[in-house]
Amino acid sequence: MTDLSPSLSVLPNDLRVVHGRYGPKGLASVSVHYGVGFRSEPEGRSGFAHLFEHLMFQGSTSIAPSQHFSTIQGSGGTANASTRQDYTEYYQSAPESALERMLFLESDRMAAPKFVEQNLGTQLAVVKEEVRRNVLDRPFGGFPWTELPGTMYRKFANAHNGYGVFEDLERATVEDCAAFFDAYYTPSNAVLTVVADLPEEHVTRLVTRHFGALPARPAAAAPALPEPPPGSTRLRRVADARTTAHATALGFRLPSFRTDPLGYAAHVVLAGLLTGDSPGGLAEAAGAHRLPVASVKVQCGFFAPFDALDPDSLVVTLHHDGQDPRRLAAFVQRELASLATDGPRPDRLARAVRLLRLGWTRRHAEPLRQARALGAFTLLHGRPDLVAEVPALLARVDHAEAATAAGRLVCQDPAALTVGPLPQGDPA
Predict the structure, then answer these.
(1) Of 156, 89, 87, the residue nearest 309 (C-alpha)
(2) How far apart are CA 168 and CA 172, in angstroms?
(3) How far apart are CA 109 and CA 196, in angstroms?
(4) What confidence tens digit (pLDDT) does each residue in 78-126 have?
(5) Which of 148, 248, 276, 286 has CB atoms 3.0–4.6 Å from 291's, for a disulfide?
(6) What is the DSSP string of 90-156?
């Protein structure tokens, strides 16, 4: 992978600033990551972090609602945002000539957003429609990330649905928005990333001009996330009247990337060995055992690997014809036990590592993805340069490391979430 050679500095107000110098001439990408996500929400406020992401595009004393989008698009660029378990990110990419414009817009968002009842009501309706479209009105909507955490975990921070429930969202007030902003949208809880082939001095001067005067404010305490693993298998079934198919998701705990980076990377490689139609993977094994499984996906993280604090999850998703989830869990555990004992075949291990490294390199060759990854890695793991080190870390996963990762999963009792059609005779 091309060396991103990012620099990391800290302004007097504790805003962390990352500058990635790699990128095509004439293009600049900017992201801001805030250390607040689904797992920051208190009970009774599920979905608030995502709702707040929408509200942060509703203007300030100097910017009209949605003007952020129109300004970036008018400059020939694109802008968007997303909310994850442990962060909310805002990002944009545009011609280099618009860099100062992008920095102004993000500093304005960090300094003085405007919360009014009309905008709150409008964005509440937008979010509810998004939830209906992506979850409530779609077969397997949100599966498995909206429901599996509640089967895997007990703490509200780890267990609740990050999209939230409508009753919680409808209780949100303008005062709640102001308090949430004061608690989490502080320079000390944020990472600003600029990826552009520009001199360090130029970027520093622009960043200081627009962010240096923002006052330092303490951020709210981070949620207490650690919890012990379950002592037995947890099973949950959800009836879905919109489908005639079945799917089961099995959730396992991952080691902490911060304290055991190679162990975490070994689970990423293990997921690559097992997923899809990979030779020697779970789909091939299911066919050999005449277990009717239509597809298999194995992934570290609900959204992506390396993308969450501890605890993080490895998820095995199987689409099938209505098998007992306990039978599916036993099948997966047998295959993991075999890998733990014998390890993967050298050619299959080499193939999985090669594809994972290639995929990582290709994804992060695009400047905006670089900016997003550099900011997220700085916020979550403390080092932007780790982004460039991931391919080498994956290459260090050998036969023994892969077998050890499989053994760690065998020792767990996975959570199992099954979604399928309503039982015959039940009303829709």
Answers:
(1) 87
(2) 7
(3) 21
(4) 999 999 999 999 999 999 999 999 999 999 999 989 999 999 999 999 9
(5) 286
(6) EEEEEEGGGHHHHHHHHHHHHH-B---HHHHHHHHHHHHHHHIIIIITSTTTTTTTTTHHHHH--SH
Q: 338-365 burial by CB neighbour count: b if 16+ within 10 A, else e?
A: ebbeebbeeebbebbbeebbeebeeebe
Q: Are 15 and 190 a contacting pair, CB within 8 Å? A: yes
pLDDT band at 5 (very low <50, low <70, confident <90, very high): confident
Checking if the pLDDT of 18 tops 50, the result is: yes
pTM, two decimal places: 0.95
With beta carbons less than 8 A apart as the criterion, state whether 21 and 199 touch. Answer: no
Average pLDDT over residues 157-171: 96
Residues constituting the chain: 428
